[in-house]
Amino acid sequence: MPKAATVLDELKRAFLLTNKDVLLLSASFHQAMLRGLHGQPSPLKMLPSFLSAPDGSERGLYLALDFGGTNVRVLLVELHGNSQYTILARRQTQLKDVGGRYDYTTSLTSADELFDFIASEVAQIVPSDKDLPLGHTFSFPSRQQDINNALLINWTKELAVSGIEGHNVTKLLAAALMRTGLTRVRPVAIINDTVGTLLTAAYTHQNSCIGSICGTGHNSAYLEPHYRTTDSEMIINMESGNFDKLPLTNYDCMLDAASEKPGHQLLEKAVSGRYLGELLRLILCDLVNKDLISPLLSTPYYLSAEDIAFILTDATPALSNIAKWLVERCHIGNWSIEDRLALKEAAELLVNRSASFVAASYLGVIQHIDPELERNHHIAIDGSLFEKMPGYAQTITRVLHNAHGVKANKITTGLTKDGSGVGAAIAAALALL
Ligand code: GLC
After folding, report:
1. Which CATH number is 59-193+418-428's, of 3.40.50.150, 3.30.420.40, 3.40.109.10, 3.30.1330.10?
2. Which of 218, 303, 314, 430 could form a disulfide with 321 if both were Cys (CB 3.0 to 4.6 A apart)?
3. Whose CA is closest to atom 1 on ligand 1?
């Protein structure tokens, strides 16, 4: 049997999940939620946000700062108070310049350098004549002390800026705003992007119960009906990217071993945009003989989720777009049609596994909040994988439906675009109520 066929057979065994596999995973996710909620050791941190769902009546003008590890986004958002909002201004800048002029993601950057850069971005869209409350979406595991104070527990998504882990992120931001002369901008709330996505969806729709990001990183938050001793509603940031009870493969282990934080974020490393390209690259190096691999393809993280999306959209019979991509992007001219087909199939398997793992985690949450599926539930999702990866959203829907049969129409999923940014404005409004 040719090498590609043998490797593909193994990949299918490891990557295709049956409905039973999904249900087992969702049950184990639910167990991890319960342990985390009760303060027992769990891969799920279950971090309280100090926020509940908005009712759509919140209003006012707010700055929203969205820091997720790839870009810094600043929005000026007006909440109209009737479940409607308008984004009046927006600005987005990458943390790492493609031309190599700057990079604010590594341990060579200090906390002050990063926050001065962020404050300079805020300065670009602040109207000079107004006092403005600022909501901050900071998309990393953070222990909240209240709505406006959070300590970064640890970096994820390969960020490694020095001097921020263990520190109060709001204080670092406030000091940088002062240094930049932005004395009229006042941070009033800090949230995770999953919380922001859930807040935005709840502001505009009923029944929103989960906010999730399927993009560079992966994580979900949900509305807990009875939070600990308070017994009241609380949005919980699960940090579900750290879930680790998963059937992982050698490729996942190789990627993890070479990452910034081995042993952490195993679900995120198996599903999210930051890592999918690298998983495909590792598979490729196995799929074809060594002499068919170029030095470029031997470079860690050379492939990205965009490459995967490109591969999946080639519908030509001879996969001629992939052939062109191999030459231009990877400097490889000698792959047969069988090799190209194997490459496309491997990419499909990876994306399918990612969406199935994510759907299993949503099923775990629904099992927790409504085991008999008596009510309708909307899962609000933001992020490039969900929005753009061919087949991703459809696979999530299919897996949810397979699990729940006829009752499945009670669960809907949908894109909540800009949810993480707009959610920061909603959080600011809730903080000032
Ligand atoms: C990572 C972060 C998490 C964030 C997610 C999506 O998993 O740890 O806080 O929500 O990425 O951006």
Report:
1. 3.30.420.40
2. 314
3. 217
